[in-house]
Every structure is written in structure tokens, then in C-alpha cells.
Amino acid sequence: MDRKIILLITANVVLAAILGVIIGMYLKSGQEDCLRDDDPYGQLRVKVAALADSLDAIAGVAVIFDNGDTLSYNGDVRFPMLSVFKFHQSLAVCDSLRRAGIPLSGKVLLTGDDLPENTWSPLRDEYPDGGIFSYSDLLVRTLQQSDNNVCDFLFRTICSPAGTEEYIRSLGVDDFAVVCDEKTMHDDLSACYANWSTPRSAARLLETFYAIRDSDDYTRFIWQTMSGCSTGTGRIPGYISGQVSRIARKTGTGDRDASGRIMAVNDMGVVVLPDGRHFCVAVFVTGAGCGMEECEEFIAAVSQAVLLQEFV
């Protein structure tokens, strides 16, 4: 065989081997050195990575433990939040009410025009012509039931998406965006990706909130209301609800995209253990080719693995 051809073949083989190593390193980058000998969370990292790798989707996980330690998988990847951003909104709304001197018991009128059809809205289903509601009533609807009409009403009348983003950043939390209301996302599914967060950012916001949860009536209200979240009960609480003292959380769920994949199956929350310790966990799933049940089971399994780590 011609010497030049042999050299060319050899060079291609070497190049392929190098590319294989680079790609392998890239694919494993989300695992964050799972096998470090000095890592007390090494086994948990391996478990989380294995769960994520078995899912036909892109998954991201971030955990902040009671002692300040952190763990993540794809923790810096941007995921569409969907209704998870209603937690961000509730914090900004309560700050606006606080600064304006308006109590949560303050009343406001919603008309039928504020409650359009063809979107998720338990309040509209109960009161199609509208009514007078307290701000606490409305926040319960957004935080516990993810009511889209109530969310947009609060954006229009209390704190806009831009105002929400500005307030959350003032808390020292970055790596997220809130730019669209629910109507915009309903009219254009691609807009659902505009409201995004990294898992690390979501967990950091939870930890920031946990530190101030008892600072006044507004934060105490959010803490209590999130503890009664009624959506996605098969996610974070799925395998651990009977083993912990409290789970305060917010879910987000997306439709299927043009290729038939689920845009988002998310949950973020603070889990309080019976001994008073806690951990913050954010689990985001996007582009899922599997079913909703499998995505929720993944979130439940991650939460269970983190809980077992804390009980060791």
C-alpha cells in the first residue's frame, strides 16, 4: 500500500480517537466529577447521573444542602421554567404590595375580561364572570394551582415580568429570565423558552427565600402557600412525602413541541427533614420523548436519593 495512504489512514484513526475522548469528556461534564475520592456526595452524584442518563430527555438537577454544600447535574444549563416562574412572580408581587403598604387581605376586582378561555384557570372555572378577591386568594391560585389568568392579572396590575426579573436579581440571584406572560406563551409556544432558569439559579433562589421565610407576613404567607402546592404531586413528594416534615415547592409543565416532545416537566422546592434540617432541590426536564409519568418518576427518584443522602 502506498506510504502516503498509510499515513493518511493512521492520521484519521488518531483524529477519531482524539475526538472520541473530547466528546466523552463533554458528555460527562454535567456529572461534575462524580467519582472524586474526596467527595462525600460522590455516590449521590453517580446516582443522579445514572437516573438522568436513563431518561429520554435533557435533565438538570441542583441541590443545596443544609450545611451549604451543593451538588448539580447540568446545573448551568438553561431550562424553560413554564409555571415555575410563578414563584419568582409571587416574591416580586409581595415585595410590591409591601412597599405600597397593601396587605394581603386587600381586595381587587377581576372581571370576565380578565379571565379568557382556552388557558388553564381554575378561578375562571369557578367564577366565569369574575368577582372580588383578596391578593392572598390570587396568590394561592398561582402558587398552588398555577392559574394562568391570575398570573397575567398580577403581571398587568402589580408587577410586570420585567419588574419581577429586576426584583429577583436584587436578591443576588442571576442566571434566569422572566420576559413573557402566560398569554404570550399560549399564543406562541416558542415563547415558552424565553422564561428560563438554570437549576443552580432555581435552587439558589429557594435557599435565599428559605432564609427570610419568617421575616414578615408576606414571606410567611408564601412559605405556607407553597407548602400546599397541589400540582405535580408525583414529582418531588412522590417517594418522600411521608418521611419529611414539609415540602414547599412550585411546579412547571409544558405542552408537547412540534416534534412531539414534552417541553418541560419541572419541580423546585425546599424539603424540611424531621430533625429540622432542610435541602433545596430543583429538577428540570425538557425535550422529553418519554411520557409525563416517567419524567415525574425521575424527579421523585432524584428527590428520594437526596433524602437518603441526608439520612445517612
Per-chain topology:
Elements: H1 3-27, H2 42-53, E1 58-65, E2 70-73, E3 79-80, H3 85-100, E4 107-111, H4 122-126, E5 130-134, H5 135-145, H6 148-157, H7 161-170, E6 176-177, H8 182-187, E7 196-197, H9 199-212, H10 217-226, E8 246-253, E9 265-272, E10 278-286, H11 292-311
Antiparallel strand pairs: 1-2, 1-10, 3-7, 4-5, 6-7, 8-9, 9-10
Helix pairs in contact: 2-11, 3-7, 5-6, 5-10
Overview of the structural elements:
The protein has eleven helices and ten strands. Helix 2 packs antiparallel against helix 11 and helix 3 crosses helix 7. The longest helix is centred in the first third of the chain and has 25 residues. It starts with a helix and ends with a helix.
- At the first level of CATH, what is the class? Alpha Beta
CATH topology: Beta-lactamase
Largest sheet: 5 strands, antiparallel
Shape: globular
Structural class: alpha+beta
The termini sit apart by 63 Å
Number of domains: 1
Low-confidence stretches: 1-37
| CATH architecture label name | 3-Layer(aba) Sandwich
Q: Please state how the strands of the largest beta sheet are arranged side by side.
A: 2-1-10-9-8
Element order: H for helix, E for strand? HHEEEHEHEHHHEHEHHEEEH
Mean pLDDT: 90
β-strand percent reads 15-25%
